[in-house]
Amino acid sequence: MFFGEYEYTIDQKGRVTIPPKFREAFKGGIVLLRSYDKCITARTVAEWGRMAEQLSRLPVTQSKTRRLNRATFSSAFSLDLDGQGRVVLPATLRQYAGVTNEVVIAGVRDCLEIWSKEDWLAEQQLIREQVWQIAESIEDRA
Q1: Which stretches within the chain are classed as H helix?
Q2: What gap in Å lies between CA 41 and CA 107, rounded to an integer?
Q3: Cα 2 to the chain's mean position, in Å?
């Protein structure tokens, strides 16, 4: 399980350090892709496989499914961490997420999210304002 938030800087080669406590999970590789929000999602190979399996169960006759598959699979990159625990963030993903220099890596249960520091601060503000309403609406469905 991934949790916590960690601040890092992107180096000149577009690499970011993965927090040391999570590196073992990515020993077999890391899959980076566009998130549904304005950030980059990092998944283990196993978790990526589970996500792909879930998407494969959706009916391809629906245009929403086809678009979701395009959005998901066309933005995915299978990579490896280097010897210092860094991964290159592909330019298209950096551009999508507005990642240029300072980033926050947030653990979000089954994945990591890589945010520009500025966008993460804005997201945190929204969370602080809305979390009680979100929690109440979810409790009603449980």
Answers
A1: 45-56, 63-73, 91-97, 117-139
A2: 10
A3: 11
Q: Cβ(96)–Cβ(40) under 8 Å?
A: yes
The identity of residue 26, as a single letter, is F
CATH of the domain at 38: 3.40.1550.20
Q: Is residue 39 part of a domain?
A: yes
Establish if 47 belongs to a structural domain: yes
Q: Measured between alpha carbons, how far is 50 from 102 in angstroms, rounded to an integer?
A: 30
Q: CA–CA separation, 118 vs 114, rounded Å?
A: 12
Picking from 66, 64, 72, the residue whose alpha carbon sits closest to that of residue 93 is 72
Taking the CA atoms of the chain, what radius of gyration do you get in angstroms? 16
99-119 mean pLDDT? 98
User: What is the token pair recorded at 140?
Assistant: 């009603």
Q: What is the pLDDT of residue 2?
A: 98
Q: Residue 75's domain spans which residues?
A: 2-117
- Pairs from 94-98 (Cβ < 8 Å, separation ≥ 24): 94/10, 94/14, 94/40, 96/34, 96/38, 96/40, 97/34, 97/35, 97/38, 97/39, 97/40, 98/38
Q: Is the pTM of this model over 0.90?
A: yes
